[in-house]
Amino acid sequence: MMVQAKPPGAWEQEFARLSYEWEKVYAYGDTDSMCTDGVILNRIRQELSELKEKLDVAGTDGEWLIPPEVEKSFMACADEIRIRAKTAIQEYLALEEYRYVQAVLPKLTPKQKKETQALEVSGKVMGLADALTEDNLVVLREYGAPGMFSEIIAETAKKLRGLSFKALPASETEQEEIQEDWQVEGQMSIYDLAVV
Q1: 71 near 40, Cβ under 8 Å?
Q2: Are 112 and 166 a contacting pair, CB within 8 Å?
Q3: Which of 9, 76, 87, 191 is most buried by a 10 A CB count?
Q4: Cα angle at 104 between 101 and 108, to 5 degrees?
Q5: Are 151 and 91 in contact (CB under 8 A)?
Q6: 74 near 36, Cβ under 8 Å?
Q7: Helix %, strand %, coil % of the chain (to 5)
Q8: Which residues are within 8 A (CB) of 50 and not within 5 positions of it... i.e. 6 or more apart?
């Protein structure tokens, strides 16, 4: 069985579709990908180049313009992404529920941290803040929409308010002091009578 090649008309339609996609990604970015827009644009450009070769070989009429190559780090709407992410971080840090989660987090047992998703909430907000510091526009675009984490922060704070907290174990120096406190000063212990 022989596979038939696509007719030139199908290649022309595909070229037009990819050209439109390139323009769209260049102007607005590709929010579906976890990579830079530059990588996506150059991939589309490569596909357009391959189609142009096929169209030229087939002898079709028309000018098949290939868009320019862009830097791999290119991101469409970079300033807007930064502004949205900064707004989102400020919103989360100002939430009473988030501040409560952060205050209670050190008092939680590992089991409580897992059950309440407190570490996850803290990590998401801190990760977003780190991404802003590092200017990681891919992460900022994906997770920097204001209000995106507000619901999970509120749910986590509600779970935490329903918990009872045990006193945390003392540090090693505090434990040594506590262990030494049991003996009254000047009193002998049974270890003092040990034969050397």
Answers
A1: no
A2: no
A3: 76
A4: 115
A5: no
A6: yes
A7: 65, 0, 35
A8: none
Residues in the chain: 196
The whole-number average pLDDT for the span 164-180 is 53
Give burial (CB, 10 Å; 0-12/13-18/19+) of 161: exposed
Is residue 74 within 8 A of residue 38, CB to CB? The reply is: yes
Pairs from 38-44 (Cβ < 8 Å, separation ≥ 24): 38/70, 38/71, 38/72, 38/73, 38/74, 38/75, 39/72, 41/67, 41/70, 41/74, 42/69, 42/70, 42/72, 44/18
* pLDDT surpassing 80 at residue 164: no
The one-character DSSP state at 59 is T
Please give the DSSP secondary-structure letter assigned to residue 191: G
